[in-house]
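Good morning C.,

I know you're traveling, so I'll keep this short. The sequence:
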Amino acid sequence: ANIYRIDFETPGGMAPANWSIHKMAALGGTGNNMRKFLFPVDVVPTGGGFDVVVAATGDREHPLFPDDNGDGQADSTAGLAYNVQNRFYMLQDTGSETPITNSDLYENPQGQCFDADEDLVDCASDAAVSEAGFGQLRGARKGYFINLPNSGEKGVNAPVTIAGKSFFGTNQPDTPSEGSCTANLGIARGYEISFRNAGVTTHLFSSGGMPPSPVAGLLSIGNETIPFVIGGQGPSPFDPGEPTIELSKRRYRAYWYFE
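The tokens, ready to paste straight into the viewer:
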């Protein structure tokens, strides 16, 4: 599970001879950490000295429940696609040539707070200082990851980001019923994650199966521009939705004068 960055605009110029490629992130491993990226990442410029790169892992090519014995129990062999712990990643790309690894990231920060050392603590802890947020660089940490919570669940499409939220879909093979001859497409979910604070909203898709990659954009109707996402909020992966734009409550005073 590696992510590479190709730089076309370099200090030496934009001629092909000056292009460079670097491994931006190395996030896989062995056994149940043998994650795969099978779909493109989404990149969000921030203007804060880094670009946000979001991606979800999952081996879509092996979607089935591994019940070789017909006893309704999953094969527990390490490294099977069903047993791999898949994740959603939010990475802060600063242009460094040193790959980001899992140890550089916060783990499951949703609903957590920072202490004075910017380590994650329970928000009810006396050590809590501020709600966990990732709108800026955090010292040696380069983002976070969120473990997909369900057995066998895997990312099966490319994420898209709009209104500060990343949308992507997953599939979880359902446990087959003994003696059943009915096809089962598994459980399909849509995830809506705020890459700034790791807040997670999950939508259960009614159709099951493997949802296609969500599509987002802006729609102009008269004098109004409305954001939309198709395949992100349900109830099916083909229904449109309107993501909520979270505006900062901070207001800045602007000054100007004429001489």
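Safe travels,
E.
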